[in-house]
Amino acid sequence: SQTIHQWPATLVQPVGSPLSLECTVEGTSNPNLYWYRQAAGRGLQLLFYSVGIGQISSEVPQNLSASRPQDRQFILSSKKLLLSDSGFYLCAQVRGQGTEAFFGQGTRLTVV
Amino acid sequence: GESVGLHLPTLSVQEGDNSIINCAYSNSASDYFIWYKQESGKGPQFIIDIRSNMDKRQGQRVTVLLNKTVKHLSLQIAATQPGDSAVYFCAEPHTSGTYKYIFGTGTRLKVLA
Question: What are the CA-CA distances from residue B78 to residues A107, B5, B13, B14, B59 (Å)?
Fold first, then answer.
């Protein structure tokens, strides 16, 4: 079965500090991986997606970046956090084009 | 799109009544649609899906209806229970050569006791 691990579950970071959120998947190979952000009471905003190692597509220009150093690892980073980076960050995997997405449990980031 | 920045619309339903949650999709070439349920503090989870060669699909207490003419999707929940309180998203996995996976605006369902 497919499993997605995201950590940490919650994070409080000061403005200007760096960020690294990690997502790892199990039970599948060559998944399409996605990072979403969700502000409180809002919808899911697609940030980045990756169809393979080293392949990153950015959907929204912003203060964040993503990397995929291994097939089952997807990392979301920032060099200097902004207050507006606060939100609920979700990693998802999709086995193939046009199929169900499986989500991790998310990381709630608060920038203070 | 821009809709992700808007507050989620809320549907309040009395416990035991039926709920209908609506979604408009954009790509007339889409052939697969999914409904997800997101409980507070958790990631979205799959509820039910439907292929474009169908107009209706039923699950346990849930039914999805697809109207391709007007590009409209709905999720019906029968005998709504307190545990149904959540945010519901429709998704239209793009199959037209792109790997984007976009979700609709979402609707918050509140079940009143």
Answer: 32, 30, 11, 12, 10
B2 pLDDT band (50/70/90 cuts)?
very low
In terms of phi and psi (left: phi > 0; alpha: psi -120 to 50; beta: otherwise), the region of B23 is beta
| Cβ–Cβ contact A108 with B under 8 A | yes
What's the mean pLDDT in B41-69?
A: 94
Report chain A residues whose CB lies below 8 A from the CB of B5: 39, 42-43, 45
Cβ atoms of residues B44 and B107 within 8 Å: no
Mean pLDDT over all residues of chain B?
89
> From the CA of B10, how many Å to the nearest CA of chain A?
10
CA distance B82 to chain A (A): 19
Distance CA A19, CA A40 (A): 20
Tell me the per-residue pLDDT of B67-108, one tens digit each, with 9 for 90 and over.
Answer: 999 999 999 999 999 999 999 999 887 655 667 778 888 999
Burial of A61 (0-12, 13-18, 19+ CB in 10 A): exposed
Q: Using CA of residue B48, residue A95, residue A97, residue A74, what is the dihedral sign?
A: positive
Task: Provide the token pair at A25.
Answer: 């998947």
Distance CA A38, CA A92 (A): 13
What CA–CA distance (Å, rounded) separates B82 from B67?
Answer: 29
